[in-house]
Amino acid sequence: MAYLGCHLSSSGGYGAMCRTAASIGADTFQFFTRNPRGGRAKAFDPQDAAVLAGELADGALGPVIAHAPYTINPCSKDPRVREFALETMADDLSKLDRIPGVYYNFHPGSHGGQGAEAGIGLIAETLRQLLPPGGRTVVLLETMAGKGSEVGGSFEELRAILDAADRPDRLGVCLDTCHVHDGGYDIANDLDGVLEEFDRVIGLQNLRAIHLNDSKNERGARKDRHAVIGGGKIGLKALAAVVRHPALRQLPMVLETPNELPGYAAEIQLLRREEANA
Ligand code: FE
Ligand code: FE
Ligand code: ZN
């Protein structure tokens, strides 16, 4: 069984997210570590974090995903922007390291005209500085749609970052179904082929989480616009196949679809029915 959940607001804290997840039938969730458009993080509340740590430890929840803000860019041309990304990520990790079982997902960044190779080198350098020995949180690179100068729009680019960063114990990949579709991979019709390619290039053992989204755009559009499950160009059938896939079982799958909580609850229910009807 896959763990299914959705993106939740973190404004009420960890305990509140655990209660919300339970109320919508979710056994995982995702949250932003701070305002996605930047800004200061809340102080760490050990008592509140203990609620989440307890649910992770007793198996009530599968792995949960903390998402870095969108505004950081670890491969900016501007060294101050890179420094800010490193500081933000290090601060996030210092807190997440206190809650075993939480992944830290981030967008690799935009190279801003320097070229993918330079971007890959800068991202890897940021990760090497971010992950000194001693921490434990596994950091996930998200597969991107390849919009503009985004790095991570192909499996090869993610592989190159992983190789250059050289911290296999601390790094993994989160596959976003909307992004890979928009990036040109045919998960709508050939999930097995895409997973084989992922395995060949990156290695399925490095796949730690899924963002489960439909896409408003045609395959290869490089746009990144999420649609509700079954309301886009990927379609319910293909997304149900992701949930059911034997190689993806045990992974947390998080919806980032345009929904409020009742919509998320309905999508989780729908996908669990599809999973049972294998
Ligand atoms: Fe993301
Ligand atoms: Fe995503
Ligand atoms: Zn997206």
UniProtKB/TrEMBL annotation:
Function comment: Endonuclease IV plays a role in DNA repair. It cleaves phosphodiester bonds at apurinic or apyrimidinic (AP) sites, generating a 3'-hydroxyl group and a 5'-terminal sugar phosphate.
Residues reported in the UniProt entry to bind Zn(2+) 2: 142, 176, 211, 256
Binding site for Zn(2+) 3: 179, 224, 226
The enzyme's E.C. designation: 3.1.21.2
Pfam family, any one: AP_endonuc_2
UniProt key word ATP-binding: no
SMART domains for the chain: AP2Ec
Species for this entry: Candidatus Avoscillospira avicola
Protein name, per record: Probable endonuclease 4
GO biological process: base-excision repair
HAMAP family according to UniProt: Nfo (MF_00152)
Cofactor (UniProt): Zn(2+)
Catalytic function, reaction form: Endonucleolytic cleavage to 5'-phosphooligonucleotide end-products
Keywords: DNA damage, DNA repair, Endonuclease, Hydrolase, Metal-binding, Nuclease, Zinc
EC category name: hydrolase
Co-factor remark: Binds 3 Zn(2+) ions.
Residue ranges of every copy of the Xylose isomerase-like TIM barrel domain listed in the record: 19-273
GO molecular function terms noted in the UniProt entry: deoxyribonuclease IV (phage-T4-induced) activity; DNA binding; DNA-(apurinic or apyrimidinic site) endonuclease activity; phosphoric diester hydrolase activity; zinc ion binding
Annotated residues for binding of Zn(2+) 1: 67, 107, 142
Similarity section: Belongs to the AP endonuclease 2 family.
Lineage top rank: taxon: Bacteria
High-level lineage: Bacteria, Bacillati, Bacillota, Clostridia, Eubacteriales
